[in-house]
Design brief:
Blueprint (H helix, E strand, L loop, with lengths): L1 H38 L5 H42 L2
Helix pairs in contact: 1-2
């Protein structure tokens, strides 16, 4: 049971890492888009505002995902320590 739980937690952690990589890539894309929008004259305010909102949302997703990854890694470490004590 415990090994299956650890395996499932590691798989979930992998999904969170994929989410973080995807959100980071989107953020970089939005930031590039924002730079391109600001170089256009006259500035299209609606496009810049939308891109700024997208950057903020991607940053929030990255921050949340990072917090979840840290918590999952701590949970895995705690569970592994608990299991290693039981087997001694």
């Amino acid at each position: 049971m415990s090994l299956r739980l650890i395996s499932e937690m590691e798989r979930n952690l992998g999904w969170w890492w994929e989410d973080l990589r995807g959100a980071s890539a989107r953020l970089r894309g939005y930031q590039r888009q924002l730079i391109e929008c600001r170089q256009i004259s006259p500035r299209p305010r609606a496009t810049i505002a939308l891109t700024l909102r997208q950057c903020a949302a991607a940053r929030r997703i990255c921050a949340h995902t990072t917090i979840v990854i840290k918590a999952r890694r701590t949970d895995l470490t705690t569970l592994n320590q608990f299991l290693s004590r039981d087997h001694q």
